[in-house]
Amino acid sequence: MKIIVCENYDEMSKVGADIIAELVAEKPDCILGLATGSTPVGMYKELAAKNKAGEITFKDVTSFNLDEYYPLAPDHDQSYRYFMNHNLFDHIDIDKTRTHVPDGLAEDPALMGKNYDAAITAAGGIDLQVLGLGPNGHIAFNEPEKELYVGTHLTSLTDSTIEANSRFFASKSDVPTKAVTMGIGSIMQARKIIVLASGKGKHYVVEKMQDDRITTEVPATLLKVHPDVTLICDKDAYNG
Ligand code: GLP
């Protein structure tokens, strides 16, 4: 795993945006795997600025997001579809019909998950996957557990994740207790992965990502077996 330690959040955002911009320039019809959370917001702003300045175009890019709360409608202001439209898609020239987010209202989440993974494969597979880190080491919504799923699936959120994500909702009781999320296999099949981490709250996970062991109890450690992962973190996440 390659590690880039940045001075601060803004530098982390720029480094991440440059990596994506380079890929989009090189392969205009690339497949991006995108993440939500507060961490990638700055990077998405940088990408929108590059697009506005005419440096890159997203018109032939396809995207697949990692996860969505369940059950939650796409037009709910806390849905990850809403987040992506609001923080990125509405500000770039991407064709929204090429943007995919797991269906948070799927009647049959298992079937939806299978179809989601099949759609990624049919599109040619993810060229570059963006990941954030949960403070407990979760990636997407693959929470610390004895056994993890390979493909996209319905999962329950841990109390610590509900607590951490409650800052975006009116109250903790409004946070959905379930989500549909890409599995570890869906993520691992990406050709390249960039992980963004900012702030002292992510130090525990960033440290766990640097020793020579893996554990499903800290899902982000599983990324060590992927051949092309770049962890881009700021000093607070790196040093604690
Ligand atoms: C959510 C998402 C994750 C994200 C995490 C961290 O739980 N499902 O994909 O990485 O939040 O969020 P933040 O970047 O706000 O710390």
Biggest sheet descriptor: 7 strands, parallel
Task: Count up the helices.
Answer: 8
Helix content: 25-40%
- Which ligands does the model contain, each kind named once? 2-amino-2-deoxy-6-O-phosphono-alpha-D-glucopyranose
- The oligomeric state is single chain
What order do the strands of the largest sheet run in, or round the barrel if closed?
1-10-9-6-2-3-5
Structural class: alpha/beta
Order of helices and strands: EHEHEEHEHEEHEHEHEH
- Distance N to C terminus: 19 Å
Low-confidence stretches: none
The backbone outline, from C-alpha atoms, is globular
> What is the residue-averaged pLDDT?
97
- Percent range for β-strand residues: 15-25%
User: What Rg is obtained from the alpha carbons, in whole angstroms?
Assistant: 17 Å
Kindly state the number of beta strands.
10
